[in-house]
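quick one, 130 residues, struct below
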Amino acid sequence: TTASIGASDLSKTAKALEIAGKQKDLAFIELHTAQFLQALETLLNNINAAILAHGKEKSQNSMDFEALKNKLSELNRALVAFDYVAIDKGANDLQEWTQAAEVGGKIESILQNILIGEHEEAVAEIERLY
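---
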């Protein structure tokens, strides 16, 4: 809810509009809807900006290459063994590294090869990253 992210005024207005709707109080709805929608748009823009800032911050931080190497090793083993459950898990685990400046493009290429069934090429790419 909006109250759980610090938008208690917005939450109160939404509740008041909901009650007005149930009571068919069109005058209240007409008076408060535009302001409510503007406040909601501002909240959504602020949330989007925070998400984008967090994503940039995360991608700018130095990567934990040891953790990445472990994930790549697990995925490599899964690909060689044709363990599709482990392949799916490994591919999902690598998603967070697609934004890394150092290796993001290479990780995306590995994931793309897995997606199209080019497992041998994915294995080769993983081995080149070691």
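The CA atoms of residues 113 and 121 lie 7 Å apart.
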